[in-house]
Amino acid sequence: MTGITLVGLGPGDPGQLTRTAWETLTSAEEVWLRTAQHPAVPQLPANWRSFDALYEEKERFEEVYAAIVNEVLRLGARPQGVIYAVPGDPFIAEATGPEIARRARAAGLPLRVVSGVSFIEPVCAALGLDPYPHTALVDALELAARHVPSFPPSRPALIAQVYSRMVASDVKLTLMSIYPDDHPVQLVHAAGTAAERVESLPLYAIDRSEHIGLLTALYLPPLSPGTALEDFFEVVAHLRAPDGCPWDRKQTHQTLRSHLLEETYEALEALDADDPAAMREEFGDLLLQIVLHAVIAAEAGEYTLPEVVQSVHDKIIRRHPHVFGDVQARDAGEVLQNWERLKQQERAANGQAEKSLLDGISRAMPALAVAQKYQARAARVGFDWPAIEEVLDKVVEEVQEIRAAETPQEVAAELGDLLFVLVNFCRWKGVDAEDALREANARFYRRFTHIEACAREQGRPLENLSLDEMEACWQEAKRLVDD
Question: What is the pLDDT of residue 352?
Answer without folding.
Answer: 63
